[in-house]
Every structure is written in C-alpha cells, then in structure tokens.
Amino acid sequence: MSSKLIHRFHATTGETPVNAYIIESDCGAAVVDATLTVSDGRRLRGCVDRLGKPLLGVIVTHAHPDHYGGLVELVRDLDVPVFATSGVAEVIRRDDAVKETILRPMFGDEWAAERVFPNQTVQDGDVVSLDGLRLRVTDLGPNESPHDSIWTLEDADRHVFSADLVYDRHHCYLADGFHREWLANIARARRELPVGVTLHPGHGEPCGAEALDWQERYIDTFLEAVQTADWSDADDGRQQVIARMLDYLPTSALQFLMELSIDPVADQLGVR
Ligand SMILES: [Zn+2]
Predict the structure, then answer these.
(1) How far is the centre of ligand 1, averaged over its atoms, from the C-alpha of 144 (Å)?
(2) Ligand 1 centroid to 110 CA: how many Å?
(3) Which of 8, 70, 81, 214 has the fewest CB atoms within 10 Å, counting from its CB?
(4) CA atoms within 13 A on the CB side of 121
(5) Ligand 1 center from residue 196 Cα (angstroms)
(6) What is the C-alpha to C-alpha distance for residues 193 and 191, in angstroms, rounded to an integer?
C-alpha cells in the first residue's frame, strides 16, 4: 500500500489562526482548505512546491472565507480541480460580494482581490480519487457555516478532515445561526465516526472524538450565557456573555469570532 503523510499548515496572519492540510502520497499532494489571506495562500503553495510533487487537487470543506480566501494563491498558474459539495460551492459564490464588503476593511490587500471558487462539485458519499489518494465526503448541510462538509481519508485508518465541526480550544463562530443543526451534526458524528478517529480540525491541533463533547458544551454554554444575560443594557449583556465564555475557555484565540456571534444569536433567540 502506498504511504500517506498528513502535514498540518498552521496559518496565523491577521491573528486568525486556521489550518490547511497537505496530504502527501508517493505520487503527489492534495490540499484540504486554503486559509484566509494572500500571504498564507502563498506560503501554503510554497510548502506544496517544496515537496517536489504535483498538486493533484484541492478540497474546500465549508463556506467560510478563512478556509478558501487563499485559494487563488494556492492554485496560481496551475490547472487543478477544486472540489466542494454543491452546497458549499453555491454558498461561497452567493456570499462572495457580502464577504468582500466585510473582509476588505478588515484585511486590506490580504483579502484576495480576485477569488477562486470550487470548480468541481460532489455529493454526499462521493469519493474523490487523486492518483491513489481517496477522500470521501460527508455533506453536513448547515452547520458552523451555511454549508459544511467533512472528508474521510480512505485506506489510511480513521483520519477525518473535520472542518469546523469541532474547534480545538478556540473560540467559535455561531453568527450564521445554525447552532441547532450544528448540535445535531455533533450527535450524528458521535454515532458515525469510527472508534479511534483522528480529527483534523480547521482550528487547533488534531484531536480525538472527545472534541465533540467539548464542542457541544461550548455551544450549550454560549446559548445559556446569551439566554441568561441581563439584556436591560445591551453592552452589559454582551460583557456578561464574554465573561462567561472566557471563564469556559480562558484564551483570546479567535475570541473575536465569539464576540461577533453574540448579537446575532441574541436576536435569533429573541432575548433582547
Ligand atoms: Zn473556520
């Protein structure tokens, strides 16, 4: 059997820690996700080039810009397939103009002037085969983003590229409003993932299935914090939620994503 190596590429530009993964086989490499910024997309491409093997294809797990913004640099001057479920591909195209208005002021030239989108769509259960690398997609539908998927590396003993189904000890983004679906997907993953699985998450270190429990508690804690805050003063209410979440997870890593989620979730829950 051919050997496969998984390299984690950890991007930090703009204080937005995010992972991409390079899966190296004897004949080439596949990349899962593409980071947010121009600089990190270029660095990721440099890592692929240094392997001295062709880039066979790219997978985009879900419809958030910190996972596809660097795509244009990753595939520059190459003709490679970029795979996503049709749901992920549609949402990325649909939301591109809105993301431009949000991300340009935040990241300036680090948000790519021209974005590249997935060019090959797959459906739930499809296997993408790239010269000996086989990746099977599970379509999660709405989850952490409006459309997510996770990808299992076949023939390589229980490695799953788990997108943002679980974060590893980073604050989380709930502003897209799909926490119910997210919790249901966690329950589904608990039933379906194999014993001894290694999850390769979009943020943080590789982890085991216990990360599902941590993620479920994070979401439940956040919802409870929003529900129980005293919203008679909006700023006070927000500070109470932040304090509760920093108590649950005492790190500032991606804290801004959690803070961005407070108002939308408070509105969604109708608590203020
Ligand atoms: Zn993410």
Answers:
(1) 8
(2) 17
(3) 8
(4) 12
(5) 24
(6) 6
**What's the gap in Å between 164 CA and the centre of ligand 1?**
6
Residue 186 burial (CB count, 10 A): 18
What are the structure tokens assigned to 245, written together?
């979440």
Spatial CB neighbours of 125, under 8 Å, sequence gap ≥ 6: 136, 137, 138, 139
The Cα diameter of the chain in Å comes to 63
Output the CA 128–ligand 1 centroid distance in Å: 22
Q: Cα of 232 to ligand 1 centre, how many Å?
A: 32
For position 254, what pLDDT does the model report? 95
Decide: pTM greater than 0.70.
yes
| Alpha carbon distances (Å) from 111 to 4, 14, 70, 190 | 32, 10, 8, 35
Return the higher-pLDDT residue of 211 and 13: 211
Ligand 1: distance of its center to the CA of 15 in Å? 13
> Ligand 1 mean position to 178 CA, how many Å?
15
Burial class (CB in 10 A: 0-12, 13-18, 19+), 115: middle
Judged by DSSP in three states, 144 sits in: coil
Phi, psi of 167 (to 5 degrees): -95, 150
| Spacing, Cα 221 to ligand 1 middle (Å) | 19
